[in-house]
Structures are given as C-alpha cells and as structure tokens.
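User: Can you model how EPU sits in this protein?
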Amino acid sequence: MDKFVIQGRRRLSGKIAIGGAKNAALPIMAATLLSSRSHLLLNIPTLGDTTTIGRLLQRLGATVQYTKEGLSICVTSIEHCEAPYDLVKTMRASVLVLGPLLARCGEAHLSLPGGCTIGSRPINLHLEALKKMGAEISINHGVVHAKARRLHGADIHFDIPTVTGTENIMMAATGARGTTLLTNAACEPEVVDLATFLTTLGFRIEGAGTPQIRIEGIGHEPDRDTAYVIIPDRIEAGTYMAAAMITRGDIYLSTCHPSHLVSICGALREAGATITEENDGIRVQGGKIHPVRVTTRPHPGFPTDMQAQLMAVLALSSGMSVVTETVFDGRLNHIAELARMGADITHHGQDTTIRGVPRLSGAPVMASDLRGGAALVLAGLAAEDLTHVSRVYHIDRGYEKMEAKLSGVGASIERISGAV
Ligand code: EPU
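Assistant: Here's the modeled complex, given as structure tokens:
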C-alpha cells in the first residue's frame, strides 16, 4: 500500500489543470452498454474507479481501450449480465450497470453493495423504481436479480434525490416502452452530463438539471457512433481551492466550470478566500480563515463530497465553525484523524463543531475513504513537520496524480510505494 509523506507549511502557488469528473465518467461509461456502436470518451480521468468500471464493462463483454484520442468503448454484444462481488465491493458505483443491462438484455444480476465507510447507502430507491417500470426483482445470497422482457415507462417519485438512482433509472428508461417521468430527481451537473451523452446517442431526455426529468423510450438501439467530452471535476477543483486556502496560497485552476462551483465558492469566500473567474478557470487566493456554518445538501447546495476538505480548512480558522452533514450518516472518519493532527473538532449527531487552532502538527494518519483522505492531505500541507497519510489507494480512486498536481504548485509531497 502506498502512502504520502508531506512536509507542510509551504505556500502553494501556480496553476493546476482540473481533470474530467469521476462521477460523470462512471455513469457515462456504464451508459455505453446501451448501444452496440462505438464510443470515444474524452477527458476520462485515469483513476482507481474508472479502471474498475472499465474492468466491469470488459467482464460484461465490452472492448475497452485507451487510445491516443481518449477511451474507446464498444459493446457489440453483452456476454454476461452479472456485476460480480469482487468488483462491486471495491466500487459501489458498479450499481450503475443495473439500469443499462436491464434495458439492453432484459436481465441483470448485481452483487448487493453493503454499507461503506461513509454510511449505510442502500439501493432501495433504484430497485423500487425498476419494479414500478415492470422489473421483477429478487434478492438471494446477496445478489439482486432483475428481469423484465421490456420495461415500461412510469411516474417515479424519489423520496430522496439520489444521484446514481436518478442516473440508473434514466438509463433504464431509455429502452422502456413509453414515457418515464422522474420527480425529485437529483440535479447534479454529473446527472446533466449523462443526460447530454444519452441525448448525443439519440435518446430523448428533457429536464435534466431540474427535479423533473422526462425520458421517452425509443423502440430501437441507437445507430450512431459517438465522441463525447466529459465535464471537469468540480470536487477536484474544490479540493485544490481548499489547498490554496489552507496554505494561504494563490492557485489558478484551469479548465473548470465556475457555474458548477457556485455553492463551493460561496462557502470558501465566506471563510475568507478571494475567488475570481479568469479566462477558462478560477483563481483562489487564501488569507485569514474565518469560521463559518455550512450544511451539506444535494445540488445546488454545498456538496457532501467537499465536507471533509472544508473541515480541514476550518481547523485553522479564527473561531468556531459548525458543519452539518445531512446527506450521509457516517461520513466522519476523518474527524478523529484531524484531531490527531491537533484540530479541535467534535461531533454530535449531524453536527461537527470545529474550533480553530493556530497550527496543526504533522502526524501519521490513515485515509479511510476518498474525500476524508483528501482532507488529511490538505491538513498535512498546512501542518508543521511531516505528515504520513497511509492507505492512499482511497485517494487514488478519485484524484488523478494528486501528488504531481500539488508538487507542481510548490507542495512537498512524496509517494512512498509499498509502505505499510
Ligand atoms: N439513498 C437511499 N436509498 C437509495 C439511494 C440513496 O436511502 O436507494 C440515500 C443515501 O443513503 C444517501 C442519500 O440517499 O443518504 C443520497 O445518496 P445518493 O444515492 O445520491 O449517493 P450515490 O448516488 O450513491 C453519488 C456520488 C457520491 C456522492 C453522492 C452525493 C457517484 C458515483 N457517487 O453517490 O460520490 O457523495 O452521490 O452527492 O456519483 C465521492 O465521489 O466521493 C462520492 C461518494
């Protein structure tokens, strides 16, 4: 297992290019199952999770190749309709093949993802929606079996706006007979990107980006090859914005979409960052960090995927902050690790109280999930002396070349391969 060793207290300055969005790449890669034509996907980040879904697509029968231009995927025919446990257990987003498999083959078998380090994360809303569309669903020995000769359109109201649930049902509905209307659907930019990709293939989808999405099933497979560029990763951008703040640095993030970053910019500005839009990117200058109150919410609210990184920044603020996590019930593993570095941080229920301290001190800490791991790296960038962040594989699932990007703006961060 690799670890990062960080020598902290270096002011970061320079330019970081933001890569393609992990959470857009994953559903779009899954959506290639809906057609036997070839797809060229551009701006797909090279990450643990995109590699895992590529492997899953190959198991199902896809040809997946990295070429000079981008990632080429072609699923001439589906050979297996099963997402096995060895892949699902490493990446919950494997659930995204359920809708496309059911639409294309009338059958799908998915090892049920269990709980994970950020919460219980059931998939009941995906399964209830598929049942409403006529799928027969049973669960045996930890495997979801779904069957439907042809799904039919339905009116589906999500009790909670689920991101992968909305994406799964949107994909399933492209092959259904009739129209599907989703209400209280997730509005995240990644949902919009999937809808745009599906529309490029020839499917009919309206309303993505609003809580009401209408999908008209088409009675045939798409007959076009596609080339598609994935949107930039707003959470990667937010994480490096936090790096500028915590080191009182000055970082220009190129190739990001400011319109996807409104709530993140709002919270970071309130906490003291100077943020300006320049050309095709955003410049972030850190200064004195002010305490804030922030609550995570579905888009357009402040994203839960930035909660841990914000806490790392607030650990060095001039007063008391409260961060309330309302999306996941267990996204808190980074709290005890930040406390090991000197943060004054306690949580009760959904609320975490962070009393700013003048300095953090380097320590050995352990990443136990992707964003929590990123928060520990941020804390290490600001801390005195050395911070050792172990279990970097969590971070590699969602950040492409993090150490290279941070070194490029002046951080002292080294990857030690094979460390315990
Ligand atoms: N929920 C249910 N039942 C369901 C589905 C969801 O109760 O059937 C609950 C969840 O337990 C959670 C809430 O609904 O409390 C929202 O979960 P959602 O389904 O939206 O999460 P997700 O689709 O599993 C995606 C991202 C996550 C991100 C969340 C929230 C992908 C591949 N994953 O997960 O990304 O945190 O939306 O925005 O898109 C990450 O990148 O670090 C990450 C975890």
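A couple of observations from the model: Residues 23, 26, 93, 119-126, 160, 162-165, 186, 190, 303-305, 327-328, 370-371, 398 surround EPU (CB under 6 Å). The chain has 14 helices and 24 strands.
User: Helpful, thanks.
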